[in-house]
Amino acid sequence: MPIRSGPLGALVFDFDGLILDTETCTYETTAGIFAEHGETLDLAWWHSTIGTADHPHWSKVLADRLGRPVDRATLVARREARRLAVLDGLPPCAGVVELLDAAAAEGIPTAVASSSGLDWVGGHLDRLELRSRFGAVITRDDLGGAGARTKPAPDLFLLAAERLGVEPPRCVAFEDSPNGVAAAQAAGMVVVAVPGPMTAGLDLSAADQVVSSLADIDLAALRGLVVG
Q1: Is 126 one of the catalytic residues?
Q2: From the CB of residue 227, how many other CB atoms can be counted at a distance below 10 Å?
Q3: Is 16 helix (H, G, I), strand (E, B) or coil?
Q4: pTM surpassing 0.85?
Q5: Would you call 192 helix, strand, or coil by DSSP?
Q6: Would the CA dihedral through 35, 36, 37, 38 be positive or negative?
Q7: Residues 48-82: pLDDT tens digits?
Q8: pLDDT one-digit tens code per residue, 183-222
Q9: Active-site residue, from 16, 21, 142, 208
Q10: CB 25 within 8 A of CB 87
Q11: Is 14 a catalytic residue?
Q12: In what order do the strands lie in the sheet containing 171-175?
């Protein structure tokens, strides 16, 4: 474990399920596709995929269950239309804007570190008018795209710290999944877990702190975590 010392240097946010609850409707609309084929989308398997891109595509899982090929492009387009209809009306998760405001007021830089692609993350950040609030937006595209080593590997978090010019031990990372917590810890950051609806039942006890919402965060408490 690295020694954590010095002042709070930066805040690094996961995106899916942390800034925007993309995870609930993503699971529900994907499960709907499975149901239309007479299958059930295994929730335990789905939980294992949250926070990382290192897993089989759900359409392959469906094809394996059916024992025959499926039209991936058609199914993905159907799922995308359904989940975007939900996502386009969703606000940021509770406490996101207020925490960004508090960080900006004290000159603390912020970044996003996400296993998703830039089109996805950047598009939603633009819609929410949040993209300019972050000094760096790091996605799997920064690591090479679809074949990149994403969470639970530390690469995304390490690159976020590098782009902000802050040593990882002075960063606090906010995550909602075990894969994300493991990645941030491997990067040497303080980790605050903020479970969402899809991850509330998962084991996030490895984090330095677990809170129910970003609205429960204050910078003084974060400084205590970093100094401690």
Answers
A1: no
A2: 12
A3: strand
A4: yes
A5: strand
A6: positive
A7: 988 887 789 999 999 999 999 999 999 999 999 99
A8: 999 999 999 999 999 999 899 999 999 999 999 999 999 9
A9: 16
A10: yes
A11: yes
A12: 136-138, 110-113, 10-13, 171-175, 190-193, 209-210
